[in-house]
Amino acid sequence: MTTDDRLLKDLSRRNWIVLAFLVLASLPWQSLEISQAVLAGGLLAIVAYRWLQRSLHNVISNPHRGAAVGFKFAYFMRLGFVAIALYLLIAVAKLHPIALAVGLSVVVINILWTTFRRMI
Question: What pTM value is reported for the model?
Answer without folding.
Answer: 0.92
